[in-house]
TrEMBL record:
The protein's name: Heme-binding protein
Pfam families: HbpS-like
Length: 143
């Protein structure tokens, strides 16, 4: 089973932050988790608002918990709010149903997730995908 290496996690983190700067997005927080949900890398740019790291973590946790990118979780929340509320409770409250939580795939297997928060959710997702692709891995947004 492929594993998400620390080198991959650092590449994802750096490339996601770089994408945000290149697009002149608001300051971002980026979380990279392995397939178990263990924290592999985290950074918050200067000027991020309070709790952005926790929001980014919730996007990544939700993607891993449900096995779909958080864009799909957001759609699910609109269509089945009771289920998403229950799932949020089941994972200890760390599930944010908004784009920006992206599954990391290697050879078709989920090896982790990235969560980004700080700008519009669509922009957060752009940065997460850029980071994953920079590491030579595949992104699953839930689109």
């Amino acid at each position: 089973m492929p594993l998400l290496s620390l080198d991959h996690a650092r590449t994802i983190l750096d490339a996601a932050l770089k994408a945000g700067m290149e697009h002149t997005f608001k300051p971002l927080a980026v979380v990279v988790l392995d397939a178990r949900g263990a924290l592999k890398a985290f950074a918050a740019q200067d000027g991020t608002s309070l709790k952005r790291g926790e929001i980014a973590r919730g996007k990544a946790d939700g993607a891993l918990a449900l096995g779909i990118g958080s864009r799909a979780v957001a759609k699910m929340a609109a269509e089945r709010p009771t289920f998403v509320a229950a799932a949020t409770h089941a994972v200890g409250g760390s599930l944010v149903p908004a784009p920006g939580g992206v599954l990391i795939l290697d050879g078709g297997e989920v090896v982790g997730a990235v969560g980004v928060s700080g700008d519009l959710s669509d922009n957060d997702e752009i940065c997460a995908v850029a980071g994953i692709e920079a590491a030579g891995l595949k992104a699953e947004t839930g689109a």
